[in-house]
Design goal:
Oligomer: single chain
Number of strands: 5
Number of helices: 6
Strand order of the largest sheet: 1-2-3
Length: 177
């Protein structure tokens, strides 16, 4: 208890010392109505931004070119992939399969970011590793598209003819920039 009290009083004195440097704002006055017939004055306070805000889209639907075939023979083509986090890209690096074979990184990574695939109850790296190669290539490309949002290309100019063109700056494999 004594430590807590000492910490609280130290924090209060530090706050008081810091607050002394800045003026405190006065409480807001209640709005008053203008008498009938008199012109209304400018609005009190800064204007409020009423434009609609753009929300960050974090999940993206996709359709596999061939589809994943489960053990019962059902083909699953429609799915949803979410944006990747730094954690999604770092955790697979500790996976023994990835350490032994770096190409396995994309399988583990896709298993983390695909949130839905057809009617499967759960999507994991075991599902991804049993996909057709064309579907895996599609998902790798889709992953790059939604996570880069076009920020992996740069406009450059040819040093010989001065013709402008774009170059790809991103890494060649998932999880590599």
């Amino acid at each position: 208890m004594r430590r807590t009290t000492a910490k609280a009083s130290a924090a209060a004195s530090q706050t008081a010392a810091t607050g002394a440097d800045f003026p405190r704002s006065a409480p807001a006055a209640a709005p008053t109505e203008a008498p009938a017939g008199s012109p209304a004055g400018p609005p009190a306070g800064p204007p409020v931004d009423t434009s609609p805000r753009q929300e960050l889209r974090t999940e993206f639907p996709f359709e596999l070119p061939r589809g994943y075939v489960d053990d019962s023979g059902t083909v699953h083509r429609d799915g949803v992939m979410r944006l990747s986090t730094a954690r999604d890209e770092l955790i697979p690096l500790r996976d023994v399969r990835v350490q032994e074979n770096p190409a396995y990184l994309s399988v583990v990574l896709l298993g983390r970011v695909i949130t839905r695939l057809g009617t499967l109850a759960m999507v994991h790296d075991g599902v991804v590793e049993n996909m057709f190669a064309s579907d895996l290539a599609f998902l790798q490309d889709f992953y790059r598209q939604i996570n880069a949002e076009g920020h992996t290309r740069a406009a450059v100019e040819c040093p010989h003819c001065s013709e402008p063109f774009e170059v790809e700056l991103g890494g060649s494999r998932l999880g590599e920039s």
